[in-house]
């Protein structure tokens, strides 16, 4: 059995997926990234290997992706998170043409071509109002944890509009709505709707086209996907369960098998191609 690992070093969390040659997930793990990126990656990798029931010596190839990918000394190669996400999503949902990835610190819209390669992309990483961090800050201000965002929004009877294009101004709106007696559930749903508005604008900038797939930590909240469906007037794919957070790491692990195959067929490529696109 041949195993590869994908390590997605995100700004908030580091995710690791270990797969076999049939792209079956043998183990996965997630930990806070913090400031010691290499240590976080090693910790998550060890946990994923333990879950898979294998040792590091049985790992044939490791691909690092995400913003901290260049800080992982034990990775065999690096890949951009755009490439890894595209590979992971297209494996799960082969007909995908537009990907929305909403993480804690960034939001990305990616359009794929007919061969599932990245054709265009746009990022929103300049303001927290366009990322998952905005939802987390809104929840914390109202006294709720991140895990309570989904259940809280699910009880909403109607979204309270939050129009601020800046996280600071949006937070002021939240404070004002609370002082006027608005229900926290309605404010939370309004924050989700605001984030979706920004995400749809980002998708339009890449000339989105169906089929749509949503990934990233914030998409583990069903309310987020429901609002996107409503705004797009279209069905959307969402990887099941925890996989929605691990899709990019999963794609990186798949790229590990792709690289192994290339090395076996053309060994010289190992020296001439140190990184994946």
End-to-end CA span: 27 Å
What is the β-strand count? 10
Assign an overall shape. globular
Supply the CATH architecture: 2-Layer Sandwich
CATH topology: Nucleotidyltransferase, domain 5
Instruction: Assess the beta-strand content as a share of residues.
Output: 15-25%
CATH homologous group name: ATPase, nucleotide binding domain
The secondary-structure element order is EEEHEEHEEEHHHHEHEHH
The oligomeric state is: single chain
Spatial extent as radius of gyration: 19 Å
What does this structure look like?
Helix 2 (81-92) packs across helix 8 (243-265). The chain has one domain (3-125, 199-272): 2-Layer Sandwich (Nucleotidyltransferase, domain 5), CATH 3.30.420.40. It has helices spanning 37-52, 81-92, 132-141, 149-154, 167-179, 184-205, 222-232, 243-265, 269-272, and strands at 3-9, 13-19, 25-32, 59-65, 77-78, 98-102, 107-112, 118-124, 212-215, 236-237. The protein has nine helices and ten strands. The radius of gyration is 19 Å and the shape is globular. The protein has 277 residues and is an alpha/beta fold.
């Amino acid at each position: 059995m041949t195993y590869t690992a994908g390590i997605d070093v995100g700004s908030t969390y580091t995710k690791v997926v270990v797969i076999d040659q049939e792209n079956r997930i043998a183990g996965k793990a997630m930990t806070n990234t913090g400031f010691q990126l290499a240590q976080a990656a090693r910790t998550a990798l060890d946990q994923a290997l333990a879950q898979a029931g294998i040792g590091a010596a049985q790992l044939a190839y490791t691909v690092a992706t995400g913003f901290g990918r260049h800080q992982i000394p034990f990775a065999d190669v690096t890949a951009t998170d755009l490439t890894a996400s595209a590979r992971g999503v297209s494996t799960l949902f082969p007909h995908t043409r537009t990907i929305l990835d909403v993480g804690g610190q960034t939001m990305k819209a990616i359009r794929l071509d007919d061969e599932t390669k990245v054709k265009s992309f746009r990022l929103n990483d300049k303001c927290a109002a366009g990322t998952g961090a905005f939802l987390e800050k809104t929840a914390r201000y109202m006294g709720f944890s991140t895990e309570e965002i989904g259940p809280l929004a699910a009880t909403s009877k109607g979204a309270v509009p939050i129009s601020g294009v800046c996280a600071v101004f949006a937070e002021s709106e939240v404070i004002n709505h609370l002082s006027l007696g608005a229900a926290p559930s309605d404010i939370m749903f309004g924050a989700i709707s605001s984030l979706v508005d920004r995400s749809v604008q980002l998708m339009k900038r890449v000339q989105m086209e169906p089929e749509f797939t949503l990934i990233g930590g914030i998409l583990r909240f069903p309310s987020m996907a429901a609002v996107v469906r409503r705004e797009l007037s279209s069905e959307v794919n969402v990887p099941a369960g925890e996989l929605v957070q691990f899709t990019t790491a999963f794609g990186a692990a798949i790229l590990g098998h792709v690289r192994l195959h290339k090395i076996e067929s053309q060994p010289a490529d190992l020296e001439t191609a140190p990184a994946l696109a």
